[in-house]
Structure formats: structure tokens, C-alpha cells
From TrEMBL:
InterPro entries: Nck-associated_protein-1. Belongs to the HEM-1/HEM-2 family. One of its GO terms (cellular component) is SCAR complex. It is a single-pass membrane protein. It comes from the Eukaryota. PANTHER family: NCK-ASSOCIATED PROTEIN 1. Signal peptide: none annotated. This is Nck-associated protein 1. It is found in: Cell projection, Lamellipodium membrane. Keywords: Cell membrane, Cell projection, Membrane, Transmembrane, Transmembrane helix. The lineage of its organism: Eukaryota, Metazoa, Chordata, Craniata, Vertebrata. It comes from Takifugu bimaculatus.
Length: 406
């Protein structure tokens, strides 16, 4: 019924499959009037198996088929630049490219389709989908850590030299794989954006089915005292995440990143690598301004090359890494903001038009990072990046989009 074709990577839309399943259920329930079969038990047995990775015969289920399709087809095409995440529409949308895709991303990722997917997979299936997404993120983080180790000496110097512009410029030229770091962080952000759509859909579906239970879980999460032990807090976050509620620290991401600790590296060294990863991303942001695809579009509330997803990636990766390494998430994000602000302020003095063509669009990333973060405030951003620059940047990108449409 999923009409999955591995060769052409085609699959039925979740809403179509849900309609078919409900039609079957209605027919079978009417048969119960004439034949003594416990149809409810049949439904529970069959549909619960479909929320697992494999059924009782070891065959793939709709959970494994849809998880595979979203990861290997939809999200891979996002990484290839054929699809973008549009925050204004809360959906992934096809971009006009030479190679037309065989499917319309919006028809598989909008709110109604994600709710249908949640209805089909249930909390167990959505948990499996989340864990699969996190596995892909952890492999990207492992590669990012390797790039940090390659540039460790330069990054260590940059971490303490952000108030010396000339020295920072000289050090930046020594960095390698800057584009790779930004691309990998953007991919992480895209995966997290897709997961947030899935989580929101799960929360909507559960709120219809079990409203009192969901409101109790929300109450638990919203009233965790700040002094609560982290292990206890993570248990509450895990419960909340299973109900589709967004958490300050993503428990699935913490579990995925915890499992990749290296035996040869000490905890202190791991912590240093995590800190320097944030430094690497912060000092690399200005290079995005030279990319023609980095232009901000007010209509989609984002950028066509998905760099707006960096805001989610930076906040959630920092929260997970510094939970694992028992560091202060707030302090590390403050350090990130200081480094990113000083790096972006420098491109304000550049005269090369190619280097700064989308400068204003990249400035907006700072605002997005703060808006996305439960640990940062606008007051803090104001202390290291003048708000007048952000206001002018918003004005410039809106003016640019109006003239482009005209």
C-alpha cells in the first residue's frame, strides 16, 4: 500500500496511505457484523507491528520504508541543493534546477502530511525516525571534530584573539576546510529542521488523542527547577520529546553524540574540541556573504541555500555537546556570539563587492541564532553587535526583494 519503489525512489504520500488504511479498517469493521472475528485485536496487532523497524516476519514496515525515504531521498536532495526548507511555510520546497525531481517535496513535508505520518507511525515509529536522523547528525559531528583537530592550533589562537582584527585576519587565512565546516553544519540544521516538523506533527496528533496526558507532560517539562540534577532533567526531556514537545536540550541528540566518545582522547581534550568547533563555525560565518545563494528572502523567511538552518544547528549542537561534557551551555554560546559578532563586523569594512554581496543577509543569522536560543537574549546580542546594523540589514533585504520582484 505504500507503493514504495526502491529503483525510482517513489513512495505514496502519507495522507494517501492513511486514507487507504482507514478505508480498509472501515470495510473490515463492517465484516465484523457478519463474522465472529475480533477485528479490533487484528488492527492492534498489525498496526502496532508497523510502528516498529521490522514486523514479526522480519519484513520492512511502513516505519522503516518512510524513514529510509525521508533520509535517503528527500533530505539527500536538500543537501544536493535541489530542495530548500521554507520556515514561512513550515515545509520543504523544490527549487528550480536543471534536473527536475520526480517528486514534489512540499507534498511530502507540509503540516498535513507530517501529521498523517505521525498517525501512521505513532510515537514508537516517530522515535525510530528521530533516532535515525540523529545517527546521521552524529556522523556529521564526527567529521566536524576531525576538521577541528586538523586546525586546532590556529583555532586555539583565534579563540583568544577576537579583539585583534589584523591578527584574526592573518590566522583565518591559515584555516583549512572552512566551506566543509559550514556545509556540514547546514546539513545538521536541515535535519534538525525536518525533525522539528515531525515533532510538531506528533504533538498535534497526540494532543487530539490524549490531550490530558500531553498537558501533564507539558506541565512536567515547564516546571523543572533550574537546580534539578541533569540526569533527572534529561529523563523529563526524554518523556517530553517522546510526546513531540520541543526541549532546551535534545535528549536524542545527547544520546547519539555521547555514543561517539573516542577511547584515545581524554574528556578534557573532547571538551576543548567541542569549544573549538563553536569557534570554527563562528569565525567562518563571514565567508557565506560571498555566496550568491546566501541572499535572504522575506517571502520564505530564509535563504535558498538553507543557511538559516544554521541557527538551529548551532544552538542544539552546543546544548548537546556541553551537556555531555558538563560545561556551561550559556557561557559557550556567549563566547560563540562574541566571536561571530566581531567576525561579521569586520566584513562591514570590506570594500570588495564580491566578498560582501550578501553581507546584510548573513548579518540576520545572528538575530536568528538568538531568537532560536533559550540560552541567549537580545540584550546580550546588543552588547556585541549594534541593533541598528540588524535593523538596516532587514531594511536592505526587504528593499532588495521588492526590487527583484518588480
Amino acid at each position: 500500500m505504500t507503493m514504495y519503489n526502491q529503483a525510482t525512489q517513489e513512495i505514496a504520500k502519507p495522507s494517501e496511505l492513511l486514507t487507504s488504511v482507514r478505508a480498509y479498517m472501515t470495510v473490515l469493521q463492517s465484516i465484523e457484523n457478519y463474522v465472529t472475528i475480533d477485528i479490533t485485536r487484528v488492527f492492534n496487532n498489525v498496526l502496532l507491528q508497523q510502528t516498529q523497524h521490522l514486523d514479526s516476519h522480519g519484513e520492512p514496515t511502513i516505519t522503516s520504508l518512510y524513514t529510509n525515504w525521508y533520509l535517503e531521498t528527500l533530505l539527500r536532495q536538500v543537501s544536493n541543493g535541489h530542495i530548500a526548507y521554507f520556515p514561512a511555510m513550515k515545509a520543504f520546497v523544490n527549487l528550480p534546477t536543471e534536473n527536475e525531481l520526480t517528486f514534489n517535496a512540499e507534498e511530502y513535508s507540509d503540516i498535513s502530511e507530517m501529521r498523517s505520518l505521525s498517525e501512521l507511525l505513532g510515537p514508537y515509529g516517530m522515535k525510530f525516525l528521530s533516532e535515525s536522523l540523529m545517527w546521521h547528525i552524529s556522523s556529521q559531528v564526527a567529521e566536524l571534530k576531525k576538521l577541528v583537530v586538523e586546525n586546532m592550533e590556529v583555532l586555539t589562537q583565534m579563540r583568544t584573539s577576537f579583539d585583534k582584527p589584523d591578527h584574526m585576519a592573518a590566522l583565518f587565512k591559515k584555516l583549512t576546510s572552512v566551506d566543509s565546516v559550514l556545509k556540514r553544519m547546514t546539513i545538521i540544521g536541515v535535519i534538525l529542521s525536518f525533525r522539528s516538523l515531525a515533532q510538531e506533527a506528533l504533538r498535534d496528533v497526540l494532543s487530539c488523542h490524549i490531550p490530558f496526558l500531553v498537558s501533564s507532560v507539558e506541565d512536567f517539562k515547564d516546571h523543572i527547577p533550574r537546580e534539578t540534577d541533569m540526569k533527572v532533567a534529561m529523563n523529563v526531556y526524554e518523556l517530553s520529546s517522546a510526546a513531540g514537545l520541543p526541549c532546551e536540550i535534545d535528549p536524542a541528540l545527547v544520546v547519539a553524540l555521547s555514543s561517539q566518545k573516542s577511547e584515545n582522547i581524554s574528556p578534557e581534550e573532547e571538551y576543548k574540541i567541542a569549544c573549538l568547533l563553536m569557534v570554527f563555525v563562528a569565525v567562518s560565518l563571514p565567508t557565506l556573504a560571498s555566496n550568491v545563494m546566501s541572499q535572504y528572502s522575506p517571502a520564505i523567511e530564509g535563504h535558498c541555500n538553507n543557511i538559516h538552518c544554521l541557527a538551529k544547528a548551532i544552538n542544539q549542537i552546543a546544548a548537546a555537546l556541553f551537556t555531555i561534557h558538563k560545561g556551561s551551555i550559556e557561557d559557550r554560546l556567549k563566547e560563540f556570539l562574541a566571536l561571530a559578532s566581531s567576525s561579521l563586523l569586520k566584513i562591514g569594512q570590506e570594500t570588495d563587492k564580491m566578498t560582501t554581496r550578501n553581507r546584510e543577509s548573513v548579518y540576520l543569522l545572528l538575530d536568528m541564532i538568538v531568537q532560536e536560543s533559550p540560552f541567549l537574549t537580545m540584550d546580550l546580542l546588543e552588547s556585541c553587535f549594534p541593533y541598528v546594523l540588524l535593523r538596516n540589514a532587514y531594511h536592505a533585504v526587504y528593499k532588495q526583494s521588492i526590487s527583484a520582484n518588480a
